[in-house]
Amino acid sequence: MPSFIFLSIGDELINRLPPLNSLKCFESAARHGSFNKAAKELSVTPSAISHQIKGLESFLGLELFRRTKRKVILTEAGESYLRPIKSIFEQLENATSELKSKQKSGSLRLAVAPAFLTRWLMPRMERFQERYPDIQIEISSSTGLIDFSANDIDMAVYFGSGDWDDVEAHYLRPARLAPVCNPRLIKAEQPIDRPEDMRFYPLLHVTKRKDEWHDWLQQHDLDPKLFRRGLMFSSGSLTAGAAAQGLGISLTDPELIMPEIEAGTLKVLFNQHLITNRSFYLVYEKRRSVTSAMSAFKEWIIEEMVGNTNT
């Protein structure tokens, strides 16, 4: 009967295939050139990796690795076997990702740096919701790079040079950093009419971006050594907040401090922006299927960025 014939064929096929765990161990060990690194990646012991590899070699009747004291090296048969195995795992990953994406095509999970989230994105989200009322969006703040394989985040906004591993990065816009301060900081006897006039006031720095003030001053043919170093903070949003409190002058993106500018607690001193290789990027995991919600958000945020550039 057809059902028994089908099961019989399936059993024969299964019996002709090596165990999946053995193939996973083989692919990982081959990629790393190490049983120890493969064990760490797969959260098992090196002896378990060795056992699985030996079982696979016994199943195939071939030696896949040459063992040395410091590393393992693929044999010619191992190299030949690795190529299709690697391709099969990539197909499995893509098929799984595509299926999961289809199930949540009407939703989007987004991770964004806190300052960009509260200062730029949130004031504009109403426009996104008006255009795409059926897309459910969940936003979280994040200060570091996202491990997309370890969580459910679909997309993120990164700030940097755009050369991150294992992500597709779509350029949004460059950072536009200009000197800003609270107008009350400026003394009547020491006005700030030219960039060199800032030497009478403390310059606020971001700890991990100490070069920004140095570069801005040099772009204007000024000697950084002549300027006062003020307090240092862990983020640009903190330096902007300190500037609003009258603690000094910060280099800040004016688009991220519009409420303070409109309220008069911050003032852009000069519209000469720092030329830098750091920009904002929309990123998502490489090789994953792009859902309709992801595509809609990408189109919308790029349009918003272009609109702000032209205004």
From TrEMBL:
GO terms for biological process: DNA-templated transcription. Gene3D superfamilies: Periplasmic binding protein-like II (3.40.190.10), Winged helix-like DNA-binding domain superfamily/Winged helix DNA-binding domain (1.10.10.10). It comes from the Bacteria. Keywords: DNA-binding, Transcription, Transcription regulation. GO terms for molecular function: DNA-binding transcription factor activity; sequence-specific DNA binding. Belongs to the LysR transcriptional regulatory family. This is LysR family transcriptional regulator. Residues 18-75 form the HTH lysR-type domain.
